[in-house]
Each structure stands twice: as C-alpha cells, then as structure tokens.
Design a protein that fits this description.
The chain has 285 residues and is mostly helical. It is 49% helix and 1% strand. It has a two-stranded antiparallel ribbon.
C-alpha cells in the first residue's frame, strides 16, 4: 500500500474545497392588506398569509396556488417542451447547462410554462403601473422621490421586457403612454391610486409604499412559481429595488413627523425592511 505524505493529503483537501458549490438561500414575507381605497377589501387580521385581500384581488395572477420549489436542473427537453435557439446566460444555470451540440454559439432556451409566462407578462405591466403612478404624482407634488423612483421603475420595465423578448412572448405593453394599459384591471388601479395620491403629499407617499409592498409580495410569489434561474435572478433584482423604494417612501413619510404603517404586508415584515440599510448589487436600483 502506498503511503501518502502530509503534503499530498493537504493538496487533495485543497482541491476538494475548491470544488465545493456555492448555494444561495432565499426567504420572503407573506402578505396582509390594510389600506383604504374605494372598492377594495380591508381585513386587518387575515388568517392566511397568502390570502387575496384588498388591492391584490384586483391584479390578475395572484392565484396563490402552492407550487414546488425550483429544481436543481433545467426542465428536460421533450416533445411537449420544444427548445428555442436564443442566447441564455450559463453562469446562473442550476446543474449542468444545455450543450451547444451544433457549434452555433447559441444555447437552447427552455420555454416558460404557461403559468411562468403569465406571471412574467403580469410583472411587466405591474412595473409600468408603478412607473406611471409615480410620474403622475411627481407632476402633482414635484417631490423628487417620485421622479427618482419612476426612473428605476423604467429600468424594471426594461428588465421584464428583455425576458419577454427572450422567451418569444407577446409584450402586453402595446402603448407606453402614461395611464394606458392592455389589462383593464391595471387601468382601473392606475385611476384609483392616482386619485388617492392627489389628496395630499402624505397620501401620495402612502400610495408609493403600497405599490412597493404589492410588488414585493407579487415578486415573492413569482420566484416561487418559476423554474428558470435567469428569470428568478431578474425577479430577485427587482425585489431588491422594491425594498429600497419602500425604505425611501417610509423615510419621506417619517420626515413629515409621521410613522409609516404597513398596508399589505405585516408591520413586522415592513419594519424589518425599513429599519435595515439600503441594499446594493445587481440591478435593484
């Protein structure tokens, strides 16, 4: 039997350590509604953290259907899952990425499920809702926070559009005019939220906070429903941005001598966000 020296054993251990994978864990809060807008339900004590209360009920896509967590491998290519030849980032692929067997320089893209596609299109319009409301409230109150965050929401829209195009979906934003929406529910929400925000600067800032809470909750659900790492990463970046936006709106409200109160999330969840530092990295803006 060959006896290994201490140096040889140490070298093998170093190789094993270098080969260990790096895993990232994600957790997120649940939702509850508590903001008064005409026509919406207010339940300050929901029994189900995923119950569709208030504003979220008017948004399509909030089905609250339990889904399995993302698997550590791509969806297998079968007759029911044809591939589309488009570039796909390989640095964020779980498991072994698809191979370019034809040496074309292009890797196959695994199509989204119907549910994933519907959620992506929903988030594209929801980011437009945020942008349009903030642009309107900026014109009304000339508060810099609305102008700054509306610019970020435009970047969020662009991020969602890049995914819509990557997966060959039909963009629901056919008219980029402020207040114009393909989905009637979003058009109604725009009217309701801007009307509320016109009442006072305080009300406008609370509308901003409500939109960001809604965005966080919908992005959490979108992440749970997706099996595509690149889409999940995009949602995570947007959610980081929404947490930062919530911090900014809460700070503006506190500058008026008031305390920001949770509207859709629990107060504990909101406090955890607004009492923590601004987040950097990715494209959260």
């Amino acid at each position: 039997m060959q006896i290994q020296t201490d140096g040889e054993i140490l070298m093998k251990l170093k190789k094993i350590i270098v080969a260990l994978p790096f895993l990232t864990l994600l957790s997120g809060p649940a939702a509850m509604a508590a903001f008064s807008i005409p026509g919406l339900t207010n339940d300050p004590n929901p029994t189900d953290s995923t119950a569709g209360n208030g504003l979220a009920d008017l948004i399509p896509g909030n089905t609250n259907i339990p889904v399995s967590p993302p698997q550590n491998h791509p969806v297998p290519v079968t007759p029911n899952n044809p591939v589309v030849d488009k570039p796909v980032p390989t640095d964020i692929w779980w498991g072994t990425p698809p191979q370019d067997n034809n040496n074309t320089g292009v890797l196959p893209v695994i199509p989204l499920s119907d549910e994933e596609a519907a959620t992506l299109l929903h988030m594209r319009e929801e980011e437009k809702l945020a942008r349009d409301v903030y642009l309107t409230l900026f014109d009304a109150w000339d508060a810099a926070v609305f102008g700054n965050i509306s610019n970020s929401e435009q970047k969020h829209m662009d991020t969602m559009l890049s995914k819509v195009e990557m997966y060959d979906l039909v963009d629901p934003v056919t008219d980029d005019t402020v207040g114009a929406f393909e989905t009637e529910d979003f058009a109604q929400l725009y009217d309701q939220l801007t009307e509320k925000g016109m009442e006072s600067l305080e009300a406008a800032l609370m509308v901003g906070g409500l939109i960001e809470e809604l965005d966080i909750l919908d992005l959490q659900q979108a992440i749970e429903e997706s099996d595509h790492p690149d889409v999940i990463q995009a949602y995570e970046n947007l959610m980081r941005g929404s947490r930062n936006h919530l911090r900014q709106f809460a700070s503006q409200i506190e500058s008026l001598g008031l305390i920001y109160e949770a509207q859709m999330m629990t107060q504990e969840e909101v406090d955890e966000i607004i009492n923590s530092p601004m987040e950097r990295g990715g494209r959260g803006h």
